[in-house]
Specification:
The protein is an alpha/beta fold. It has one domain: Uracil-DNA Glycosylase, subunit E, CATH 3.40.470.10. The protein contains 8 helices and 6 strands. A 6-stranded mixed beta sheet has the order 1-3-2-4-6-5. It is globular and about 45 Å long.
Length: about 230
């Protein structure tokens, strides 16, 4: 899970040791004890999940939170669950990832030009962090962005991530936009430092129903690349 950049590696160590949210700590550790039957023989990560990718990224991909039996098990964001399968396949097709699948943290996946992180770093019950948990986790993303100076585009995976990105801008000292930009698939809002792009979250709820298709997600990442290279 470690990254080569010393500053990011130090931040990763801080993130993974965090125990600030008692409800999330209890849940992530309970899931690791009980486990899903198909993963009964595995040791779960059961800690906060740090970001992952290219320290020179111009595209930041922001998700909601680790999946209980995905990243909470594997220790790498979006790794080991169906949402990640859909996401990494798209990143591979659009040139951001060296392979289309990711099943565990040591499987050779590498990102180029992109960094993936989550608005909340611990798996929440029912996949729903509380507002307080969201705010408690925000400083970790602020710190992470401080070590990713080349970011020009933030791809928000779902409405929760879109809201988190706007809150992130506020935490970085920017005034709230008026009117507030609305989330939608393909939504785009440009600011002086980076552009927000919205996409439906690659959850099974969206991908199995056809609300989000591979061409739809690919189009968002292709647009992200254009904006990152020619803002």
């Amino acid at each position: 899970m470690s990254v080569a950049d010393p500053a990011l590696a130090a931040l990763e160590a801080e993130v993974t040791a965090c125990r600030r949210c008692p409800r999330l700590v209890a849940w992530r550790e309970e899931v690791a004890r009980v486990k899903r039957a198909s993963f009964a023989g595995e040791d779960y990560w059961a800690r906060p999940v740090p970001g992952f990718g290219d320290p020179a990224a111009r595209v930041l991909i922001l998700g909601l939170a680790p999946a209980a039996h995905g990243a909470n098990r594997t220790g790498r964001v979006f790794t080991g669950d169906r949402s990640g399968d859909f996401l990494f396949a798209s990143l591979h097709r659009t040139g951001f990832a060296n392979q289309p699948t990711s099943v565990h943290a040591g499987d050779g996946l590498a990102l180029t030009g992109a960094w993936i992180t989550a608005a909340v770093r611990c798996a929440p019950p029912a996949n729903k962090p509380t507002p307080q948990e969201r705010e408690t986790c925000l400083p970790w993303t602020v710190a992470e962005l401080g070590h990713l100076p080349d970011v020009r585009v933030v791809v928000c995976l779902g409405a929760f991530a879109w809201d988190a990105a706007l809150r992130l801008r506020g935490a970085l000292g920017h005034p709230p936009p008026r009117p507030r930009p609305r989330f939608g698939h393909g939504a785009e809002w440009a600011a002086e430092d980076w552009t927000l792009l919205g996409t439906f979250h690659p959850s099974q709820q969206n991908t199995f129903t056809g609300k989000l298709t591979p061409p739809m997600l690919d189009a968002v990442f292709e647009r992200a690349r254009v904006l990152a290279e020619h803002p």
